[in-house]
Design goal:
This protein is α/β, with parallel strands linked by helices and about 140 residues long. The protein has helices at about 5-10, 25-35, 50-55, 75-85, 105-110, 125-140; strands at about 15-20, 40-45, 65, 95-100, 115-120.
Length: about 140
Amino acid sequence: MDDKQVSDKKKDKEKYEILLVDDDEFLVDMYCLKFSQAGHKIFSTQSTESAIEKLQEEGYKPDAVVFDLVMPKMDGFELLKQMKEKGLAKDAALIVLSNQGEKEDLKRAKDLGAIGHIVKANAIPSEVLGIVEGIISKRK
């Protein structure tokens, strides 16, 4: 395969729109860089309230919402609940990115619509990127 074929292959890779919700500024910056370097359009916020506002914007339909469960004010469970109640991000893959790994928490998130779970402490950013891309591509 020559260089042109390699670059054509990279162009063929699907690009996604992702909403990232986490109150850890360092992690948000790191994941934003990783996802944008892969060519994805990413919008990040450090509060679930502003995530709801973004999802209510006309025409905003992310392919995935990646969020932490432990957040100030409104947690990730409440975010899932409000998204469901308001009919937001209906076609998006809802993916938990948290250090919360208890079975009860995962079941509760799944019951509220989450389809994936990544433990932050166990995954480097490139793994998170790969997992999120994999989950989205399976849904398409």
